[in-house]
Amino acid sequence: MMAFFRSMDYLDKLVNDFISEVIGKDVLDLVQYLRKKNNVSEFKLAEHFNLTVNQIRNMLYRLYSHSLVDFTRKKDKKKGWYIYYWDFYLKRALDASLAHKEKRVGMLKDLLKREETSQYFVCPDNDVRLGFEQAIECGFKCPECDKVLVQDNNSRKIQRLTKTIE
Length: 166
Known about the structure:
Elements: H1 2-23, H2 28-36, E1 40-41, H3 42-49, H4 53-64, E2 69-75, E3 82-88, H5 90-117, E4 120-122, E5 129-131, H6 132-137, E6 150-151, H7 155-165
Antiparallel strand pairs: 1-3, 2-3, 4-5, 4-6
Helix pairs in contact: 1-5, 3-4, 5-7
């Protein structure tokens, strides 16, 4: 049973990290609120968070652009306006979070492979970092300051990338 709760904590963290990174940290409180409710009007959300309706709509539209929320539109009989009621979809958020994480890991693996298989040269003043071919084109001299380039020891970068991927 404890493993289930730990995995739920992990999934919550995964979703929150995705939302923070891709959509913005400012929507996390809104998401937490929507997760506990169904069909919440944007006016109630604005009142609850002490924000304008336009600020709430901006956050909701950012979530909507990633299909994490959806709405139902109902017409107010007194005023004739349409009122939008919003729901958050955790399953969609989990799917989007996992897809984002997989894409990011793939990019990091590509970068790690390049770091492991290529030689890089740097300026002693850290002006530039060039690949072997670029360094040859520049005559192994910095294009910024004209100092002789030295081979980069990228072992720490490789270690950091490996740890990040894990």
